[in-house]
Structure formats: structure tokens, C-alpha cells
Design goal:
With about 375 residues, this protein is an alpha+beta fold. It folds into three domains: about 1-55; about 160-255; about 260-365. It is about 60% helix and about 15% strand. The chain contains six helices and twelve strands. The protein has helices at about 1-20, 25-155, 180-200, 215-225, 280-300, 310-320; strands at about 160, 165-175, 210, 230-235, 240, 250-255, 260, 265-270, 305-310, 330-335, 340, 345-350. Strands 2-4-6-3 form a four-stranded mixed beta sheet. A four-stranded mixed beta sheet has the order 8-10-12-9. Helix 1 (about 1-20) packs across helix 2 (about 25-155) and helix 5 (about 280-300) packs across helix 6. The radius of gyration is 69 Å and the shape is rod-shaped.
């Protein structure tokens, strides 16, 4: 059987050789066939390679598509996130504006608080100053109270000889020239000093000035007197002064001179009752009448404390009132003449229902 196979193979090979030798076309086809088969093999290999490449590309395409889908999803998510961030940014912007407004308001409130704090600080400082001034006033008032207590004690003992605001000298001054003011002021101060000496140091000869009046006060007097008008200048004591003291603080009380009373002007009236017929009762009624008239004149502007009366006529009136037959007697006190601010008070007294005629009234004998 092996022989048969070998024989068959030899026969085939010889046949093939013969065919090749005989037929050139067949020979060329045979060789082309080999080349084609090799080309086909190469093509198949290339196809396999291409197929593998295509598969790889397809796989890459699938992967790319998946990647693209992932990218799309990521982009959508990113866009959504961007939108969220935009909305959040808008919210933050609104909140920022609100915060800025709040900060602006707070800055204003802070500035207002600073201003209020500065105002409160200034108020506290002024209050402290007021308290200090008030404390000084309290201390001054306490000192004054102690002085008043000493004065009251002295008054009770009878040692105070010049009281506070008591006039020491008074004059009506009209200066024709402004350079005469110094002479007039010195003359008035000398008179006040003389009175102070007589009251505080009785029996001693005035050898020095015991009245002290501030220079500013003297300058004020001189300035006021320069208007060439009539002025009433009163030198008054500034405090209570005891007997034996050698110093007195004084000040000037200045009033324009003017008419304050008219001749015949009634200043006071009083009724002497039926049972008031004794000398003491009549004198009390007359004293009340004259004191009331004096007070009335003071309220009208009269500054001179001197009262001028006809003592002889007053004595006769008292006797007539003691011995009267009428049950009641109506009396009036009136000004005897026109009176200015610094003039003495000249009083007359009328018995209105007198059967004998009015006393102290020159017009009624």
C-alpha cells in the first residue's frame, strides 16, 4: 500500500511536470496561482488585521461613545451645577447687598452712638461742672448761713448796728459835666464813711476809710452818671456789721430820679373806733396810719426814709381825738407836695369827719 502511494505520487508528479513542460500558459498560471495564493494569504492576514483593527476601533468607538455620553452627562451636571452656582451667586449677591445695607445702617447707628456718647460725655462734664458750681454755691450758702446765725445771735444780743441793705448815705446827683462824677462819688462815700464811723466806732474821729466798695462798682456809678440825667445814688451795707468792727463792705443802689408822689395824694387811711379814746390807743392808730403811708410811698418808689410832719399840729390832733364827742374818727394821710424818688416824705393828716376842722392840713386851718 505504501508502494501504491509512492507510485501514485510519482505518477502525479510526472504528470504535473509534463503539463508544465508542455503547456507554458498552464505553467505561468500555476506560478501565478502561487503568487495569488500568497497574496490571498496576505490579504486574509491584512483582513484579519483590519478586522481586528475595526473591532478595536469599534471598541474604541463604543468606549468613545460611552465617554461622550459620560461627558454629556458630566456637562449636563456641570451646567446644572453652574446654574445652581449662578442662582447661589445671585442669592449671595442679594445677601451681600442686604449685608452691606445692614453694615451701612450699623455704621450709622455706631456713629450715632459715638455722637451720643460724646454728647453724654459733654453732658456729664457740664453736669459735673454744674455740680461743682452747685457745691460752691452750697458752701457759700453754708458760710452765709453761718454768718446769718452769727448775725441772728448778734441781733439777739443787740450787737448788730448796721443791717444788710441798710442805707448809709443817699444823694440826688445831676452832673453838668462828666468830669464832676469823681467829686460827687467821693463826697457821697465820705458821708457814708462818716455814718459808718458813728455807728460802728462811736466816739472815734474818722481818720481812715472803713467802707470798702469795689472799683468796678465805682466805675459803674461814674458810667451811669455820664448821661446827665438825675439819679438817686444810695450807698448800702452789703452785710450785717457788729459794733466795734472796722470794715464794712458796701455797694451802690442807683435809681433814676422821677416824680413818685403828687401833692394831696392819699397814701393811707384808718378808723379810730369809738372805744379808742385813750392817748395810747390814739397814738397806736396814728402810728399805724403813718407806717402804712410810709410803706405805700416806698412801694410807689420813694427811697428816702425821712418822714417830715408838723409835730405841733399832730400833738393838737391827738388831743382833739382823745377828747372827741363823735363815736368814730376817719383819718387820712396824704402827701403835702409833689415828691420825687429821693425826696423826704412830707405827710399831712386829715380828720375827715372832725367837727373842729382837719388837723395837719394847711388848706383846712
Amino acid at each position: 500500500m505504501v508502494f501504491t502511494a509512492i507510485t501514485g505520487s510519482l505518477i502525479s508528479a510526472l504528470s504535473f511536470t509534463v503539463l508544465i513542460t508542455v503547456n507554458d500558459r498552464w505553467r505561468r498560471g500555476l506560478f501565478e496561482l502561487g503568487r495569488i495564493e500568497r497574496s490571498l494569504q496576505t490579504t486574509r492576514e491584512d483582513l484579519n488585521t483590519t478586522r481586528k483593527t475595526l473591532e478595536s476601533v469599534q471598541e474604541a468607538l463604543v468606549t468613545s461613545h460611552e465617554t461622550l455620553m459620560d461627558a454629556e452627562r458630566n456637562r449636563a451636571q456641570a451646567e446644572a451645577r453652574v446654574q445652581e452656582l449662578r442662582e447661589y451667586t445671585g442669592t449671595l449677591q442679594v445677601q451681600t447687598q442686604e449685608l452691606q445695607q445692614t453694615i451701612h445702617v450699623l455704621d450709622g447707628q455706631r456713629q450715632q452712638l459715638w455722637n451720643e456718647q460724646a454728647l453724654l460725655t459733654e453732658t456729664v462734664r457740664r453736669r459735673d461742672q454744674q455740680l461743682d458750681a452747685l457745691q460752691e454755691q452750697i458752701n457759700s450758702q453754708v458760710d452765709m448761713l453761718h454768718g446769718l446765725r452769727r448775725s441772728v445771735t448778734a441781733l439777739r444780743r443787740g450787737d448788730v448796728t448796721i443791717s444788710r441793705n441798710e442805707p448809709l448815705a443817699m444823694a440826688k446827683v445831676v452832673l453838668p459835666r462828666s468830669d464832676d462824677s469823681k467829686v460827687a462819688i467821693n463826697s457821697l462815700l465820705n458821708r457814708a464813711n462818716q455814718v459808718a464811723y458813728e455807728r460802728l466806732l462811736p466816739g472815734q474821729t474818722p481818720t481812715r476809710q472803713i467802707i470798702y466798695i469795689p472799683t468796678s462798682e465805682v466805675e459803674r456809678i461814674a458810667t451811669v452818671l455820664q448821661d446827665n440825667e438825675a439819679w438817686i445814688v444810695i450807698i448800702r451795707s452789703a452785710n450785717n456789721v457788729l459794733v466795734g468792727e472796722n470794715f464794712l463792705l458796701a455797694f451802690a443802689d442807683m435809681r433814676p430820679s422821677r416824680q413818685v408822689l403828687a401833692a394831696g395824694q392819699v397814701l393811707a387811711s384808718v378808723i379810730v373806733e369809738e372805744d379808742e379814746r385813750s392817748l395810747e390807743a390814739v397814738n397806736q392808730r396814728l402810728s399805724l396810719l403813718l407806717a402804712t403811708a410810709r410803706n405805700r410811698a416806698d412801694r410807689l418808689g420813694s427811697l428816702n426814709g425821712q418822714v417830715m410832719l408838723d409835730n405841733q399840729a399832730l400833738t393838737a390832733l391827738v388831743q382833739d381825738l382823745v377828747g372827741r364827742t363823735t363815736p368814730r374818727a376817719a383819718l387820712e394821710a396824704f402827701s403835702m407836695e409833689d415828691g420825687e424818688t429821693g425826696d423826704p416824705l412830707r405827710l399831712g393828716v386829715r380828720w375827715l369827719n372832725s367837727p373842729l376842722g382837719d388837723a395837719l392840713d394847711p388848706d383846712h386851718g
